[in-house]
Amino acid sequence: MEGNHRQAVQSLEIGLSYNFELMESPVYHYVQACVQKERGDLETCLKTLQQALKLFTKDKGNSTDKIAVYLELIEVNKTLGFNHEAAKIMQDAINEFQNTPNEIRIAIANADLAINRGDYESALVTLKKIEPDKPHYNQARKKLAQIYFKHRKDKKLYISCFQDLVDQNPSPENIILLGDAYMQIIQPDKAISVYESALKKNPRDAKLASKIGKAFVKTHNYNKAINYYETA
User: Coil, strand or helix: which one is 174?
Assistant: First the structure.
């Protein structure tokens, strides 16, 4: 990733030698900030991102680029321990992108910020509002699941998040996530049933066959475990 950012900076530097107006491009500063962050120079990175945000106007930069700058600003402020400033920037982003297609991205970032400060209730409220037909629904459900599992110790609600994903889209990937969740709460019998339904959709999935084998080991059914391991 760092190499990609450095190559981007080099390309921008070359472009800058032909067109000094690039210096006023928010994307130019954003890419520089990404490299500074990877180098560990967070204070310089923060200043560069602040400059990038100032350069956004109706004529310079698009909303996707601006969200990227907002999210990096929030992340860097969090890392530096500037939680109040991170919260302020988040509120600015919420206000700016409310009722736009990018609203969900900001909502998920806001939930992450709440989790970071230990405000799990606020994170739950935010994530629950993201409906199945919205972008990033899967991401929101996975984050909900982790809160229920790690912080609420609620296995039932933890499983329900992955069941919701399967109900909305019974793809092999989502079914496997549900099986993994059952394994996480040490219910291998249910995991096996779920995994096998996924295997019917994709019978050549060797990695899934291996998962089923491991689940059978947990139930001490070693003969079936061996059969699945041989399939894998």
Answer: helix
